[in-house]
Specification:
The structure holds three protein chains of three kinds. Chain A is an alpha+beta fold. Chain A has eight helices and 17 strands. Chain B contains five helices and nine strands; from the N terminus they run αββββαβαββααββ. In chain B, α2 runs parallel beside α3. The longest helix of chain B has 16 residues.
Chain lengths: 353, 227, 283
């Protein structure tokens, strides 16, 4: 983990503060900082999330591919995680420097998602033994400022929740071999059920107390931490000890209870967020636009939190000029283009933001 | 104890038919005898064999058997840091786990390294590196637990300053019962994706424990556990 | 909008805006060409929208800086650490050229950046080549004698590649270096241009590139107008070359305006403080 060097006095300040339940940023031991979640930041992925918690900044994108199931699990789809610790986050990650951290995080994610019921892997199978969906969850760490594992796990859950899995419309038989045919309709997709997907709660021990949502300074005060996967029901899906620390069995039991409580809360907030992103998208699937109007924004922009605007064709150029003063669209040109090209209903702004 | 096996093979396999044994999802426990496939009680561990000092030219070494699971551990060093690595105020540990004709999950190495860093008094040898080489000769279940025990013994054999030795153990929970020291067959038979297990929970716990300090230095759990 | 056109055999579905309705893909594209409209609705001399900012990461990187550059859907982030004292592992290299600044470049692209998912993210040949190319470009403008013996680490991450990624990376690195205060002689600005149906076009998108249109990437120094990078792939007829080059030069000029605006915006506060101080000194 990217660590920073603190002097003994600074460490003492943090540890004593934690003991008195006042952390360096004014929080109590069990307070979580607020997080920002931005959806669909990568336009060529099936679902993407940028999640930012204070200084930690992560982009997660899911891409759905066609693959074949493992031989020993012919009826299950695949879920694969790949963490890329970019040197943007810390010079330590240069070259192969981030590999160890990546592998640790990948391992924890894989083990917490391997539990039954976390995600219904059977729904990801298309033709048993032949074809299944492979969902690749790619994680890019842009900035690493403490509590990285929690942020990544939350992002993964959100990203899987909004991942749009294209529907299979049929099977084509080539020389007797069936090949799935996917829909060409952008709006024809299904969502994964992520209600039972786990989040990870990391509990570093600062001094004699466990804290949640630690800053990078607090993490460098603790020798190690427990990473606990928790579902929305409060069930534990994985426990991993990271770092050079020892725990007494009594404190372990207490910490697991604490993690379950915190994890339930996180899950609830996340599911609400996923639902709100989905419902925004839903508005667009059946857009009811009056004639002579065009949709100003593409659904991806809309889902990203931009207000829906339905604009009269005649006003498009004005609205553009107002909204994008720095853009290279000029008003006369735009009007001319709109008049020339007879495709008012077409969504020609899509892909361009 | 009545034998019901059709071919009457080893007395160990009492209570299991041949068809049972070939079935990949064979029941973990025989309902008639209350014993496991290999004749153990559920809270009985496999025979353990340990030996230290098996390799003369190394600092410390050990050999551990948990039933058919066999692990060799060799400790070398502490040696000077190579020039590639920057100065370090405490000692460093490198762990390398190999297996004969197979692949070891990357997680094992990370987990072992964390555990070893927790028990070795690293302040005693600054600017030096301690190498721990583990070889899994045969993995018939609970290999990580055997590795922990072997590493603890090899460190003690080599006279490396440690807080405590460490003992590893694995526990299997299939939703109904806890099984001590599961074999590979039992681990394979537990299918975490099964719905029944989903309802009550189930999983595998590996624990590294420091007996005289009553602390854990390694803990990993996979599966689901209800509160 | 055509962003999935180059999708590989295993990539899932090719999206096509439903609003194009019954028109087949080819007829639509042909119709547009005859009206001088490119597939994404731009005119030949129109660039995609540019968004850029400096100091994107709120964390103080110990004298470092960062920048984000986005053109259309192509997004690049660059971070600069330093100038700082050379690291131990690189001191040996530094000792050989004590009179120079050691520059350490690392380019990587996210595995979701292109339509075909990349399985490895680091140290592949393409990334290393890109690092070398970017380094050789930036070496033209570093003022080495101001930070002798020190080291600068420049990391660049391509988040999404939708055409013109090389140019975007160069612009991002320039901005990040300015943000970090690494002494530069001049701006390096880059822009791409292409050519189809006898019409030179600025700022190629991935959809256009995948149809086999040539891509010319041009990078110039803003003051001296010297060309520091010129790369072209695919077939471009020689008679059209000067037209395309001129358009790319024009694009660089426009790009420069955007970059300069960003810098002014970033440093206007600083400037005001300096001006106020000067005024106070005069009185």
């Amino acid at each position: 983990m990217a660590e920073i060097n603190l002097s003994d006095e600074e460490k003492y300040f943090i540890i004593v503060g934690v003991a008195q339940d006042i952390r360096a940023d004014g929080r109590a031991r069990l307070d979580y900082r607020s997080k920002e979640i931005e959806a669909n930041v990568i336009t060529n992925a099936h679902g993407s999330i940028r999640i930012k918690l204070a200084e930690t900044d992560v982009i997660i994108a899911t891409k759905v591919e066609l693959g074949s199931p493992d031989e020993d699990k012919p009826e299950l789809g695949k879920l694969e995680f790949l963490v890329d610790c970019s040197p943007l986050a810390s010079p330590e990650f240069e070259g192969r420097g981030g590999d160890q951290l990546s592998e640790t995080i990948c391992g924890i994610l894989t083990s917490s998602y391997s539990t039954s019921g976390a995600i219904d892997m059977k729904s990801l199978c298309i033709v048993p033994e032949k074809f299944c969906y492979v969902i690749n969850v790619d994680i890019l760490v842009l900035q690493c400022g403490g509590n990285l594992l929690d942020v990544i796990a939350m992002g993964c859950k959100a990203c899987l929740g909004i991942c749009e899995i294209p529907v299979v419309t049929g099977l084509r038989f080539d020389l007797g071999e069936p090949t799935p045919v996917f829909t060409t309709d952008e709006y024809e997709f299904t969502y994964l059920d992520v209600r039972e997907a786990p989040v990870v709660v990391t509990l570093p021990r600062v001094g004699r107390y466990f804290v949640i949502d630690a800053t990078i300074e607090e993490e460098s005060c603790s020798k190690g931490k427990l990473a606990i996967g928790v579902t929305s029901k409060g069930d534990i899906t994985s426990i991993d000890k990271i770092g050079r620390c020892c725990y007494q069995l009594r404190s372990l039991a207490a910490s697991i209870k604490l993690a379950a409580k915190v994890g339930q809360g996180l899950n609830k907030v996340l599911l609400e967020k996923i639902e709100s992103i989905k419902s925004q998208k839903k508005q667009l699937i059946n857009p009811d636009f009056p004639e002579g109007y065009i949709r100003r924004k593409t659904y991806k922009e809309l889902v990203a939190g931009v207000d829906v605007k339905i604009v009269r064709v005649a006003d498009v150029a004005t609205v553009f000029a107002e909204e994008f003063p720095t853009a290279t669209y000029s008003k006369p040109y735009l009007t001319e283009k709109l008049n020339q090209a007879n495709f008012f209903s077409s969504d020609w702004t899509s892909g361009e933001d | 104890m009545e034998t019901t096996s059709s071919n009457g093979t080893a007395s160990k396999l009492k209570g299991f038919s041949r068809a049972d044994l070939l079935n990949p999802k064979l029941p973990l426990i025989n309902t008639e005898t209350g014993k496991r496939q290999d004749g153990r009680d559920i809270n009985e561990v496999r025979p353990v064999f340990v030996q230290t000092g098996i390799k003369e030219e190394s600092r410390g070494s050990s050999y551990v058997e948990y039933g058919r699971t066999k692990v060799i551990c060799v400790v070398q060093g502490p040696r000077d840091l190579s020039k590639k690595i920057d100065f370090s105020p405490t000692g460093l540990i490198s762990v390398d786990i190999q297996t004969v004709g197979g692949k070891v999950p990357e997680r094992f190495t990370t987990l072992m390294k964390d555990a070893l860093e927790a028990i070795v008094i690293l302040d005693k040898f600054p600017k030096a590196i301690l190498e721990v080489h583990l070889t899994i000769l045969e993995d018939s279940g609970s290999a990580l637990a055997a590795c922990i025990t072997a590493a603890g013994l090899a460190l003690a054999d080599g006279g490396i300053p440690v807080f405590d030795i460490m003992i590893g153990s694995t526990l299997l929970f299939d939703g109904k019962q806890y099984y001590f020291d599961p074999t590979r067959k039992e681990l394979d038979a537990l299918d975490l994706t099964e719905q029944e297990i989903n309802d009550v929970g189930g999983g595998i716990i590996t624990l590294g424990c420091m007996p005289s300090r009553d602390q854990t230095c390694l803990l990993t759990f996979e599966g689901s556990k209800h509160q | 909008m055509f962003c999935t056109q180059g999708a590989g055999s295993h990539s899932l579905p090719v999206s096509w805006p439903e609003t194009y309705g019954k028109m087949s893909r080819q007829t639509t594209v042909d119709n547009l060409w005859t009206q001088n409209i490119r597939p994404d609705g731009r005119s030949p001399t129109e660039m995609r929208q540019i968004k850029c900012s400096m100091g994107v990461f709120d964390k103080d990187k110990g004298g470092g800086g960062s920048a984000y550059f986005q053109i259309g859907n192509t997004k690049a982030v660059a971070t600069v650490y330093g100038p700082h004292e050379g690291r131990a592992s690189q001191k040996k290299v530094g000792a050989a050229n004590q009179d120079k600044m050691t520059v350490n470049f690392e380019y990587s692209s996210a595995c979701f950046s292109t339509n075909d998912r990349k399985t490895s993210t680091k140290a592949d040949r393409k990334s290393m080549e890109m690092s070398c190319r970017l380094k050789s470009i930036m070496d033209n403008v570093f003022v080495h004698h101001l930070s002798e013996g020190s080291q600068v680490d420049i990391y660049i991450e391509l988040i999404q590649d939708d055409g013109g990624a090389y140019a975007a990376c160069i612009n991002a690195v320039t901005l990040a270096c300015i943000d970090a205060g690494v002494p530069l002689q001049d701006f390096v600005v880059a822009c791409s241009a292409t050519m189809a149906h006898g019409i030179p076009m600025i700022d190629i998108s991935a959809a256009e590139k995948s149809t086999g249109m040539p891509e010319l990437t041009l990078g110039i120094l803003s003051k001296s107008k010297e060309i520091v990078v010129m790369e072209q792939n695919n077939l471009l007829k020689l008679i059209y070359f000067s037209d395309v080059l001129n358009l790319a030069l024009d694009g660089c000029q426009r790009m420069l305006q955007v970059l300069e605006e960003t810098c002014y915006h970033k440093f206007s506060l600083l400037q005001r403080v300096i001006e106020a101080n000067l005024r106070r000194e005069r009185t």
